[in-house]
Amino acid sequence: MKSSPFVGIAGNIGVGKTTFTQIVGERLDWTPYFESVIDNPYLDDFYHDMDRWSFNLQIYFLHHRFKTHVAMINSSKGTIQDRTIYEDVEIFAQNLFDIGKMSKRDWENYIGLFSIMSSFLKTPDLIIYLKASTDTLITRINKRERDFESGIDPGYLHQLNILYGKWIPAIKNIPVYTIDTNNFNIFEDHQMLDQIIENIQSYL
Questions:
Q1: Tell me, what's the pLDDT at 97?
Q2: CA-to-CA dists, residue 137 to 18, 31, 156, 201, angstroms
């Protein structure tokens, strides 16, 4: 295994990326980098008015993810990232544009900015895709009881899952390890977690 790998965790809202990042980071002695969610100044506004706040939210995520990505590739030890920068454009911004929540003008501006920023970045050594059904995502979201997620539309999550289903098979330049998490409890299924850790090491 590489001495200082760079691993990105991909997956829909509520799939368990943050917990997975924390636990795998501890097991492999990697530095975890987490998505800005609780301290995100746009999320609550976004869920109440997607048309108004979609562009602001995506620019915030892009800025935060780019800063994290740069820190990771300059690290001297292994790193693991809670959501990759590529999902911002391939999944979330794309979906907002597709469903009419982001204007063509904002979408083109965002794409141009992403293209320039991403050209300076090293690609991850591995992307781990955590997969779950929309019903599983809704159950997990409800359990964590975040106020700004209380009215999240299942149809919105389902559309994101569709985009993940298109994007993941299309990735050619980065190894991808897909984990079906529908029946996986990371706190209880110790044997499966051990196997996942072994698989990650094998990919690297």
A1: 95
A2: 14, 26, 11, 27
